[in-house]
Amino acid sequence: MTTGKRGKRRTESPFEPRRRARRRALQALYQWQLNDDSATAIIEQFVQEQNFEGVDQAYFETLVREVVARRAELDQAVAPFVQRADAGIDQMERVVLRLGACELMLHPETPYRVVIDEAVELAHRFGAEQAHTFINGVLDRLATETRTLERQAEQSGE
Q1: CB under 8 Å to 61, separation ≥6 — which residues?
Q2: Between the CA of residue 157 and those of 96, 107, 114, 116, 127, what are the distances in Å?
Q3: 3-class state of residue 149 by DSSP
Q4: The domain 13-148 belongs to what CATH superfamily?
Q5: What dihedral do alpha carbons 98, 103, 104, 110 form, nearest 10°?
Q6: What crossing angle do the helices spanning 71-78 and 57-69 adopt, rounded to 10°?
Q7: Please, which of 77, 95, 120, 139 could form a disulfide with 100 given CB 3.0 to 4.6 Å?
């Protein structure tokens, strides 16, 4: 339980630890893009310096390791859906796209709508003014390609 703005106690969402893991992963991966450290070094630094209470640390570590190891594959997957020159994607947008692509491609246990919603929220919170609409469009098109069965099931009402 947590205490809300008015002092009332509310139950924390069971999805909050993963949401926090994504936020920490976003921050770690942003730092990695700037410094090009190893995934292990970035993870160790974040675990030592950040508060991981209420964070799905295993998921954080998985996301960081997967994005670092598969960055070229992730970039290639989103490239056909990016309508602007590569130089037009800022560092934060690039991290959010890689993180979202990673979850869409490697974590089918997470519904594609959740992946997109979470990425849009991260872009809205940490990105440039219209970054969230760009992220939404790119990841929605990637989801159409990578989550075909899930989208078909949704459309047929299953």
Answers
A1: 43
A2: 30, 22, 18, 20, 34
A3: helix
A4: NusB-like (1.10.940.10)
A5: -160
A6: 80
A7: 139
Q: Which residues contact 50 (CB under 8 A, 6 or more apart)?
A: 24, 27
pTM over 0.85: yes
Q: Where are the domains of the chain?
A: 13-148
Give the pLDDT of residue 1.
47
Three-state secondary-structure class, residue 111: coil
Residue 59 and residue 21 in contact, taking contact as beta carbons nearer than 8 Å: yes
pLDDT over threshold 60, residue 9? no
Distance separating alpha carbons of residues 3 and 26, to the nearest angstrom: 26
